[in-house]
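Example 9 (inverse folding). The structure is encoded as follows.
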């Protein structure tokens, strides 16, 4: 068995003390299955069976005990009670005597034996007095017993007596046993406790006897193993073997593959004039086995290790075989964005093909176009290429190079004749040619082939304007002069066609150049406007600023990779920062366009990281940020991206570092400063965080600042009202500019604030509003929201919210704790236990494990877990102490519970978990004034506007008002609670019970009907309806059916007990009812139950006991009409009529004040008739009784007194006696008189039936002897 027999035995004792007899029977049976020889458990079983009127089973169990242990005195006493219940008086007497012989101190057995004494009751002379007018009155005029009660001190009920535990407290706090078997426990077991005296089954002994209480069960032995799993492993799995680390990022993000550094291009033969490259300073410890850098680099080292960045925006790295030319001196404020490495091939191609030979135009049949030298994009020529030429005029020139073949039909031989032999006097300088002038640092030497020319093929070059023709060498002779003349003739013939072609080509060429230049100029202006708008959007984070950038980017509509990357980043920012779900599809489409580019541009990386965060894919986001080149990691937006990804991975240390860098880059930007302030607060520096937010210019106009301040206040839990004020400002003052994620956080803060002030309805409303616009992929937000729902018992909403979590979980332990709490609230304890396997071993995990153990009725384990949580984390002191106090109160240790809860209530005077439990404990201890002080402090706590008093605090005040018997006030308070908790069955049930006690049966009926609508077949509601049926009905069969239905539904408690007691009284059970009700009302303070017991005593002619009970009720409720009337009847029948008229006057006034009907007024008049009859004023008695029948024709006492007067006047009283017996409740005294009146030598069936009823109701009544003789003649 998972629970020790000692624990179950103590549990059975507690159930009997709380009058939960059926559960006690089950507990005892469970023990006896494994330990059948435990006598004390079998005696407890007999007590429970006796309370359930299962007398045959009681006899069987007690006989089984006495076979093994004949000296068991309690078994003899219980056996005697079972015999007495079945009418076997002789056997009962023997059993009680045997019990006293074995235990002379057994006061209960002594009292029961005194009630079944052997001597016969003295026959009453009442009948003779009625029928013999000359007989001397024999009614006792003075009663020593009554004088002892009246003149002496009547024992009063002491609610503070030690050992007396209020069953109301037990019913309110007891935890139902779980159907799930608890885990087995091993270890040393405590020896079985000594047999404790069972709860009393007879009337209470004199107050001089010391009170007794059931000792608590010894604690269970320590368990050898825990029922909960060990904590899970590390939150982040280790990287695979050989995986390289990521430079420049957090060390904890170890699973991201690094980007290898680009190879450095070094000239083959560096010279002294070459500018040296900056060298990356590395340490041997920084280089891994694979030759790559390890993850020990920090962002602060970027300036030391990054390669130099060219000031040119169009810088292209040079190949390894060439040395780059000197840098061009641009303007001072020119942009210096680094170009992607993917453009290297494009740049080289442009440098080699931009100045390639142009194709010949149509019509250029005799002129070869000059070749323009390309720019020095590659390595410069050697030293010989730059040497100054010696006297070129004295040296023969090399043969001219042939021109390339024209695109048109070739001409004759003269078309390719050599030019005239004229030596140049200076360098050839063509206007617009990119070739440097002679004497420049990169002048080409004569004879050097020009780049792009075919080797070995001479090119014909026409001299420029004003340049003399080169001379023809002498060795050409006459043949050369003839060729020159032919060439001149041919030139004259074709001069018109080239001039015409040049006239067309030059304007066209100028137009193309102008168009291209204008396009570049316009593109530059557009890009400049985009960058300016982007910087503004990054600065303020407003939607309008971002929309302006998107508009400019759409107008530009660039198709290259950089433009696509920028547009992807803008759409991703719209998605992650502004919560626009439509931007997800656009972002994904643009990222797909960039997939084949191998692009490492910052905009593309930011877009990829944001998109991954929005989808909750932390691994993909980490992979994206690992592609950031070191030279761009100083950018503010890049650092913000690094911070967001690190925070999503719960790496708040690196998130703080990255956000701090972003804030340093933009010290006045609300967007960057607010992010850094929140991470500063998470690191524990709340003051620095709030100071940073206060330093932002016009920060209250920024949603980022307002939300960050509210989150920091929530994190610190120092001022929930201030946090709610910031959230309200976001939703009201900044409604037009706040983004969807900012509004979601504001709703979440307000939901949390409402939950701390005990307003669950408002918390649920705000929480649902937050869930509707939740930030995409934000795991922390979803967990915070689920925690609020669990705190206000909205477990279905919590389950739905947890369903929004991304598949990849970072905060695994917190997820597990919230899932376990949700399952526990939904009643799925097994699922909660499974979820706790991943909850870790921290203080929060101990708290939720304690709740699970408490739900499984593992008391000792739950207490241990709560104590661990309380000691491990001071922040959990309040909830852990609240649970500890509630459990101690449920175990009956109210003093211990008060010690735990009172200091916590001083710290949190309005805490909704502490205050209600403490008030209940103080009420149980009888410290009503202290409970009132706790409630007053709770209601004095300042609350923000619009936040009402917490519902649990109102419920605690209603309980206190009930403890003070201020039931109308309690009913009004419960009505206020029911208005806000329309769907709470518990609240409406409490309202119905308060209305019953306040006497408002209409409100009670509506409240119980509402309970049945919310929870069909609710036992307590059916018990209340059964009480109403008994109180206002006249059909006994319907009353009994209502009681049976309530019992079948598990109903119990004072109202069902009162209903059953009232039915017994209405049936005229008398002494049978006393035996049952005395046990039920022993420690009760329920006036209704006590009044029923007093009325049953009156029916059994136990006038002294009845007076004692009615005095007890008056001590609880001084103006109770039923108690005052019952006390008048008891005194009148005892012959003491002095002062009874005053009591009747009080009863009548109280009845009128409480709105009691004419039937009660008729009973008051009948009591007055009885007083007149006892004073032998028969005329007044008959007149008053007749007036009573005018108010209620079924008043039994009025009919009985009319019969008595009629008999005294020698008339036939049978008709009045029959009507008194047929009334509800019947007059037991009239029943006996009727049996004596109609008895004959051969009694009829009516005589036998009425006689048995009378003897069962009043075995020691006035006419018991006569009735018993008449019944003996019955068959």
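The amino acid assigned to each position is listed next.
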């Amino acid at each position: 068995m998972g629970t020790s027999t000692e624990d179950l035995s103590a549990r059975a004792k507690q159930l009997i003390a709380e009058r939960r007899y059926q559960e006690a029977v089950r507990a005892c049976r469970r023990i006896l299955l494994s330990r059948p020889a435990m006598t004390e458990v079998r005696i407890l079983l007999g007590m429970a069976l006796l309370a359930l009127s299962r007398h045959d089973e009681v006899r069987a169990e007690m006989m089984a005990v006495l076979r093994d242990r004949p000296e068991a005195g309690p078994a003899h006493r219980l056996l005697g009670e079972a015999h007495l219940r079945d009418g076997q008086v002789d056997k009962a007497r023997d059993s009680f005597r045997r019990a006293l012989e074995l235990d002379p101190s057994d006061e209960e057995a002594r009292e029961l034996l005194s009630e079944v004494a052997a001597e016969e009751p003295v026959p009453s002379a009442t009948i003779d007095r009625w029928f013999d007018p000359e007989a001397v009155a024999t009614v006792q005029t003075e009663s020593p017993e009554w004088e002892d009660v009246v003149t002496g001190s009547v024992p009063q009920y002491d609610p503070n007596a030690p050992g007396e535990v209020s069953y109301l407290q037990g019913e309110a706090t007891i935890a139902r046993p779980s159907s799930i078997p608890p885990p087995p426990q091993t270890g040393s077991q405590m020896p079985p406790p000594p047999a404790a005296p069972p709860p009393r089954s007879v009337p209470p002994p004199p107050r001089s006897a010391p009170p007794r209480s059931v000792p608590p069960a010894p604690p269970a032995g320590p368990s050898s193993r825990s029922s909960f799993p060990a904590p899970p492993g590390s939150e982040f799995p280790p990287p695979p073997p050989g995986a390289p680390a990521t430079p420049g990022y957090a060390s904890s993000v170890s699973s991201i593959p690094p980007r290898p550094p680009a190879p450095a291009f070094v000239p083959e033969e560096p010279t002294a004039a070459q500018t040296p490259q900056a060298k990356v300073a590395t340490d041997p410890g920084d280089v891994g086995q694979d030759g790559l850098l390890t993850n020990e680099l920090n962002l602060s080292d970027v300036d030391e290790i990054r390669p130099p960045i060219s000031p040119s925006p169009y810088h292209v790295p040079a190949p390894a075989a060439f040395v780059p030319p000197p840098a061009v001196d641009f303007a001072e404020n020119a942009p210096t964005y680094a170009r992607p490495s993917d453009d290297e091939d494009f740049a080289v191609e442009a440098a080699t093909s931009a100045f390639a030979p142009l194709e010949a135009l149509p019509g250029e049949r005799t002129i070869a176009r000059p070749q323009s030298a390309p720019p020095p994009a590659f390595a410069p020529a050697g030293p010989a290429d730059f040497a100054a030429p010696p006297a070129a005029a004295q040296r023969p020139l090399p043969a001219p190079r042939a021109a390339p073949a024209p695109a048109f039909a070739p001409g004759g031989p003269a078309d390719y004749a050599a030019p005239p032999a004229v030596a140049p006097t200076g360098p050839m300088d063509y206007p617009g040619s990119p070739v440097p002038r002679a004497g420049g640092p990169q002048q080409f030497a004569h004879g050097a082939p020009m780049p792009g020319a075919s080797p070995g093929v001479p090119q014909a070059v026409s001299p420029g304007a004003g340049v003399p023709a080169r001379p023809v060498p002498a060795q050409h002779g006459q043949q050369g002069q003839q060729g020159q003349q032919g060439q001149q003739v041919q030139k004259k013939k074709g001069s018109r066609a080239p001039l015409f072609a040049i006239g067309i080509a030059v304007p066209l060429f100028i137009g193309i150049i102008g168009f291209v230049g204008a396009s570049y100029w316009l593109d530059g202006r557009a890009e400049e406007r985009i960058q300016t708008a982007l910087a503004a959007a990054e600065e303020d984070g407003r939607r309008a600023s971002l929309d302006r950038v998107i508009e400019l980017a759409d107008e530009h509509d660039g198709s290259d990779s950089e433009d696509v990357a920028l547009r992807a980043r803008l759409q991703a920012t719209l998605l992650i920062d502004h919560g626009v779900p439509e931007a997800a599809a656009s972002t994904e489409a643009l990222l797909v366009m960039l997939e084949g580019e191998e692009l490492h541009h910052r905009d593309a990386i930011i877009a990829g990281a944001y998109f991954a965060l929005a989808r909750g894919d932390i691994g993909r986001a980490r992979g994206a940020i690992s592609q950031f080149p070191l030279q761009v990691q100083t950018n503010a937006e890049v650092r913000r991206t690094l911070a967001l990804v690190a925070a999503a991975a719960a790496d708040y240390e690196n998130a703080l570092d990255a956000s701090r860098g972003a804030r340093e880059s933009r010290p006045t930007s609300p967007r960057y400063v607010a992010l850094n302030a929140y991470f500063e607060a998470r690191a524990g520096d709340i003051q620095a965080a709030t100071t940073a937010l206060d330093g932002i210019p016009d920060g209250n106009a920024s949603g980022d600042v307002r939300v960050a301040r509210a989150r920091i206040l929530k994190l610190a839990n120092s001022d929930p009202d201030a946090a709610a004020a910031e959230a309200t400002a976001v939703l009201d003052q900044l409604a037009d500019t706040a983004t969807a994620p900012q509004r979601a956080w504001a709703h979440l803060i307000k939901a949390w604030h409402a939950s701390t002030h005990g307003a669950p309805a408002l918390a649920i409303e705000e929480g649902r509003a937050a869930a509707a616009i939740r930030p995409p992929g934000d795991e922390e937000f979803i967990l915070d929201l689920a925690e609020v729902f669990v705190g206000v018992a909205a477990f279905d909403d919590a389950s739905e919210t947890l369903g929004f979590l991304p598949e990849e979980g970072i905060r695994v332990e917190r997820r597990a704790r919230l899932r376990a709490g949700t399952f526990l609230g939904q009643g799925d304890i097994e699922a909660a236990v499974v979820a706790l396997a991943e909850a870790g071993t921290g203080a929060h995990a101990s708290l939720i494990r304690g709740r699970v153990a408490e739900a499984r009725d593992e008391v000792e384990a739950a207490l241990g877990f709560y104590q661990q949580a309380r000691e491990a984390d001071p922040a959990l002191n309040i909830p852990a102490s609240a649970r500890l106090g509630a459990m101690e109160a449920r175990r009956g240790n109210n003093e211990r519970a008060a010690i735990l809860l009172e200091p916590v209530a001083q710290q949190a005077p309005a805490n909704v978990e502490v205050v209600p439990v403490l008030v209940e404990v103080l009420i149980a201890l009888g410290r009503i004034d202290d409970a009132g002080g706790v409630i007053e402090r709770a209601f004095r706590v300042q609350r923000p506007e619009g936040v009402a008093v917490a519902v649990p605090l109102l419920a605690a005040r209603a309980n206190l008002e009930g403890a003070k018997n201020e039931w109308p006030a309690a009913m009004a308070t419960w009505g206020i609670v029911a208005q806000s908790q329309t769907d709470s069955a518990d609240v409406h049930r409490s309202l119905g019970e308060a209305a019953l006690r306040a006497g408002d049966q209409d409100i009670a009926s509506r409240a119980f009907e509402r309970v049945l609508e919310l929870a069909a077949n609710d036992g307590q509601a059916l018990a209340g309806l059964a009480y109403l049926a008994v109180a206002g009905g006249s059909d006994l069969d319907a009353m009994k059916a209502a009681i049976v239905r309530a019992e079948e539904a598990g109903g119990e408690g004072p109202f069902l007990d009162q209903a059953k007691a009232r039915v017994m009284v209405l049936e005229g059970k008398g002494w049978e009812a006393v035996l049952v009700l005395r046990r039920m009302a022993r420690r009760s303070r329920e006036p209704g139950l006590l009044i029923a017991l007093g009325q049953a005593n009156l029916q059994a002619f136990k006038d002294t006991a009845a007076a004692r009970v009615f005095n007890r009720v008056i001590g609880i409720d001084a103006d109770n009409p039923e108690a005052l009337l019952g006390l008048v009847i008891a005194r009148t029948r005892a012959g003491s009529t002095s002062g009874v008229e005053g009591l009747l006057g009080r009863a009548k006034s109280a009845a009128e004040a409480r709105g009691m009907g004419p039937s009660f007024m008729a009973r008051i008049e009948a009591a007055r008739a009885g007083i007149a009859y006892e004073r032998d004023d028969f005329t007044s008695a008959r007149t008053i009784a007749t007036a009573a029948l005018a108010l209620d024709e079924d008043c039994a006492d009025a009919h009985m007194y009319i019969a008595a007067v009629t008999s005294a006047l020698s008339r036939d009283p049978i008709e009045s006696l029959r009507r008194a017996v047929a009334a509800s409740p019947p007059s037991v005294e009239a029943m006996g008189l009727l049996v004596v009146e109609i008895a004959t030598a051969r009694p009829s069936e009516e005589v036998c039936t009425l006689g048995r009823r009378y003897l069962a109701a009043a075995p020691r009544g006035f006419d018991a002897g006569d009735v018993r003789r008449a019944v003996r003649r019955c068959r």
